[in-house]
Task: structure prediction
Amino acid sequence: MANEGLLIKCDSKQILIDATFDKEFEHLDVLPNAELDKIKNAESNYKYIDIILATHLHGDHFNAEITGSHLLRNKKTMFLGPKETVANFEENFNEFHTISSQIKSETPNFFESKTVTLNGIEIEMYRLEHSGESPWKEAENIAYLITLGEKKILHFGDSKIDINIEKLGLINENIDVLILPFWELGDLENKKIILEYINPKKILAGHIPTKNYSKVEDYIESLGYKNVIVLNKQLEIIFSE
Ligand SMILES: [Zn+2]
Result:
């Protein structure tokens, strides 16, 4: 969709993840207002969303007004996020009390996980540190492993690639798709961790500043990955085999 946001569809299930946000940072991509209105109104492609996930509260991943408006209009949609994100949601959405039964929050300890099942979809939450310096890295950040049909999709949010990822046992999950910020690919140690402890069939690299859109593919190729799709086309549809 934009930045690191995705609409994931499999069989009859649909999940929006890090997709309900508005313009916050000049250098990052955001959906046009007409598309955000469709999300807010739960119409067009966004009529049957089962779950909205937010990895953390930063404005390039989550917006209380857009997310809350959707939940008001589709009472079947559930929301899951870390506790800090839900506190922000409550503070910034006036009608929060009307949708509170649709909202779940969990913040596991670092490098621990928690299983949540919502609308028949199993989601594993992993607490990982947000990448970067203070104050960014203080955000409660969750990676989500989503099981839909035969597919396992791991959305990393803004997680930092860390040697402790080994402890999560992700290598045993046979991950089909890993979504992560493109900069986390660009380090030999990170590459080793990604390949040894996650080994996804495909990697979607997102969170790319729009000014880098034209050159990011060459950059990723220079890192020597074989299975990366670059998320630099807004609302692009990516099919899995
Ligand atoms: Zn962030």
Notes: The longest helix spans residues 188-198.
